[in-house]
Every structure is written in structure tokens, then in C-alpha cells.
């Protein structure tokens, strides 16, 4: 789901895509911001229609399920979303889910997801911000003492360090790096 939504940002002509994935206990917050072409109100309404896809965007595809699938998922899992877009300025999509909810889908292998996003063709910068924190206690005690672990990575940094990220050997190195960082987040 995140892959399709971030791909939309890249395909919207964005030179900058920012993806934030934050977990606090079992609650996941995801935000995708871009400086792409943006949408007016009519385009936003069409983007939320599962039986609409932008002509020419995906040859042979008759439906566009990215945003409609997200809406269905957050509704079923008692989550929420917001979509803000301005024509010519870009789009910001955010949503949250409780991963402990029976209808919440697994987020999958985030390291692989992030590497996949970095490998899309095009001239764009992708910045990934990832954080993880324990759930707040019901009494609110000690919230200031809870450790938040995080990392930030950009496509340009990764390519500067490893070379072309789409090359198999560099892709594998990037995945190993992100797997290590993800493991350190889970130690919270």
C-alpha cells in the first residue's frame, strides 16, 4: 500500500518526496509529502474513486486502487487519514493504523519497501524518516523518559555512498543497512 502511494508521488513529477513512518507502540503513522503537480478538488474526488484511473498513466489498467484501498483499510482497522493537495504545489497524505487491530494489514518488510522506492526511475530526491517509540502508559507516567529511536536517509546519500542503487549488489547492501537500522528500532 505504501509503495503504491509513494509511487504516485514520484509519477506526479515530484523532485522531492518525503516519507515518514513512525510507530508508537502498536499505532503506526505514515505520511507522504511531495512537491509534484498536486490535485484540484475534482482530481482529488477522482483519486478516491476505485473505478477511475488517470488516462495514459497505467496502460491496460482500468481501475486505480491506491487511495480507495487505503481508505477501506483505515476504515476497517479504525484508523484515519487526511489528504491535502494543491494544484501546482504538491500533496500531503497521512494515515494511521493500529497494527494490533484484527483488520489491520501487516506493513511488511520496511527495509525492502524503502529500497524499492529508492530504485524507481526518475530524477527525484526521496527522504525517509523512520521512528519508533514505546506506547505511552495509560497514566501518562514517564512519557518524557521514553526513548524514541529514529533514522533518516535520503536517496542521494545512499547513492553517494553505494553508487547506483538499482544495481543488484548495491541494492543488497542498502537492504542490509536498512535491516540493521530496523532491528535497532525494535530494541526499544
UniProtKB/TrEMBL annotation:
<dbReference type="GO" id="GO:0004673">
    <property type="term" value="F:protein histidine kinase activity"/>
</dbReference>
<dbReference type="InterPro" id="IPR036890">
    <property type="entry name" value="HATPase_C_sf"/>
</dbReference>
<feature type="domain" description="Histidine kinase">
    <location>
        <begin position="1"/>
        <end position="101"/>
    </location>
</feature>
<dbReference type="InterPro" id="IPR005467">
    <property type="entry name" value="His_kinase_dom"/>
</dbReference>
<dbReference type="InterPro" id="IPR004358">
    <property type="entry name" value="Sig_transdc_His_kin-like_C"/>
</dbReference>
<protein>
    <recommendedName>
        <fullName>histidine kinase</fullName>
        <ecNumber>2.7.13.3</ecNumber>
    </recommendedName>
</protein>
<dbReference type="InterPro" id="IPR003594">
    <property type="entry name" value="HATPase_dom"/>
</dbReference>
<dbReference type="Pfam" id="PF02518">
    <property type="entry name" value="HATPase_c"/>
</dbReference>
